[in-house]
Specification:
11 helices; 4 strands; 4% strand; transmembrane helix; membrane; transport
Length: 295
Amino acid sequence: MATIVLLTCTGLGLGALYFLVASGLSLIFGLMDVLNFAHGALLSIGAYGAWWAAGGNLPGAGRSGFGFVLAVAFGTAVGTLAAVLLELAVIRPLYTRPREQILATVGVGLATPALLSAIWGSDARTFPGPAALSGTFPLLGAAIPVNRLVLVAAALVVLVALRLFLGRTRHGLVVRAGVEDRAMVTALGIDVRKAFTLVFAIGGAAAALAGALGGLYFGSVDPGQGTSLLIFAFVVVVMGGMGSITGAAVAAVGVGLVQQFANYYTAAGLGDLAVVVMLAALLLIRPRGLTGRLA
């Protein structure tokens, strides 16, 4: 029983991490029709930003509880700024040229890990997490890592915030209307470009937050971390339905749990294969994913 509880909680934590990555990816694709292969680069930037700040380079940041929050906020802010710059300099000139758009984001996604390796080396760097989040707590006989709760809580906050943004805010409604009929929204005097930049910033913030908390989950950061997590983020987005935030959340939970249980009860590494099999089976039954809509 204790083993099942532990695997379930760790699977939920991993699923929460996948959702944080996939939510921004799904939001950008669903609202802007941009398949952003540089999303993993934003995650890596957020991870290294938080690691740099938590290492004592940012005044006030460190291994205390408040210092860790400050480090995560710094990493998220740096990733958000990088997302805005990416949208303005690379994506915006290519909105009507999707083929070049894909090539450009792939190039950024490959160049960023190389740049991080050149600055800090290719070896993994230990993430200085706070002592309060390094322990465990008992649950039904299992010792559950505290940091898994942080990931789950962050994922729930992001899920609620994105749903409120899309359905209850003026900017969310403007963006959705701009996707349907950009010319009409522009004729009404609304600058759709600014709204799209906002969406890209929110998506980048979610990716950077995933990177910052991913350092806590894995205990380290490395230049290729964003690329590896991006693969599973794409799986989650496809399974949930392209552009569906709710579908991405459900799919992320399923992927995290399947991966954890398969890795434990079978040979190590077969969890990834189990996820691929689950993806193939779902697409055979529901080609558009679990929901296939933005909600």
